[in-house]
Amino acid sequence: xxxxxxxxxxxxxxxxxxxxxxxxxxxxxxxxxxxxxxxxxxxxxxxxxxxxxxxxxxxxxxxxxxxxxxxxxxxxxxxxxxxxxxxxxxxxxxxxxxxxxxxxxxxxxxxxxxxxxxx
Length: 119
What we know:
Blueprint (H helix, E strand, L loop, with lengths): L8 E4 L8 E4 L17 E4 L5 E6 L3 E7 L4 E3 L10 E3 L4 E3 L16 E3 L7
Antiparallel strand pairs: 1-2, 1-3, 3-6, 4-5, 4-7, 8-9
């Protein structure tokens, strides 16, 4: 499964990391663009950072956290719905959720958040 380069986050058109793939650097992307908006069905985060995905542009809508190295099926509300990805300021340490995660991830758990913008 070398279709996703180390250090990248990859969006796949099909489930189980199949179909067309979009390779992205681990940087904030407010809108993946019309060619990939609402198209991904699975994700592989090969970066060393937590990734946050949103269903709407500019980091709005439903969000989901993908740990470093994780392969994730996008089901239900997230299937064919990814529009934005965040790292950096969007992925933050969330100590209250640590007990839900395996020991290897404890202390590295992140949650997603939006940057506040005045109306």
